[in-house]
Amino acid sequence: MNYQCLSSDIYHIKAVSLKKLEIKDNIYKKNSKLSGFDAVIFIDNDKVFLVDGKDIVKNSKDEDFIVTRIMYKSFNPLIGFFITLIKPIKRKYYVRNNMSFRVRFDKLLDANLTRGERNKENAYQWTNKRWQISQEEAKKRYEDLYNSIKNNGYDENSPMIVTLNRKFGVKDQILQGHHRIGICKELNVDEVNICFWTAPVSFGIFRLFIKKKECKL
């Protein structure tokens, strides 16, 4: 797992989150794909390092947002392609990192990371029978979550999960947090917390398929 992978999208991360990271600038290979970003972070299993942009981060105010790209190591695209084909196998190779980052919510929406949106009408309506609950309980859960965010703001202890290159091995996606996405949109929330998980990368050509599919929606 020594192939150098990049997130498909950039993230506007609050400086105060980046200032908490250990600095290591010698654990990756710089290339042209990393130009134009204020900072680069590197996910290494249970740790996250700041590997580029330390001066920008250091000189920023805590409330500033830094344009950030994310790196990690995984399999080469050929192996990643076969892993991506089978969902249960793909999930075994997720790197689950629990470090939370404060990000701009509007930029998260602009990145088109959602797989669907939950609202009051379809809250907690799962196709998997293991997770099905009554309409009364679903309504209560949604209202409790809605009122919590409305009255207290977004809880940094309940981050959404973004899996890097989850879709076809080439596109970042929200894995958990679609109810919160819908509520935050409705309430015009400015900032949310997310964790970054990683998936094996596949061949870049699949980005063309994603773009065509999205244009048809």
Question: Helix/strand/pairing class, anyone?
Answer: alpha/beta
| Strand residue percentage | 25-35%
Number of domains: 1
The end-to-end span amounts to: 36 Å
As an assembly, this protein is: single chain
* SSE pattern: EEHEEEHEHHEHHEEHEH
Radius of gyration from the alpha-carbon trace, in angstroms: 18 Å
Helical fraction: 25-40%
SS field, number of helical segments: 8
**Spans where pLDDT lies below 50 across 5 or more residues:** 212-217
Shape category: globular
- Report on the biggest sheet: 6 strands, mixed
**What is the number of E strands?**
10
Average of pLDDT: 89
Structure explained in plain terms:
About 30% of the residues lie in helices and about 30% in strands. With about 220 residues, the chain is of the alpha/beta class. The protein has one domain. The strands form two sheets. Strands 1, 2, 3, 4, 5 and 6 form a six-stranded mixed sheet that branches. The longest helix has 18 residues, at about 135-150. It is globular.
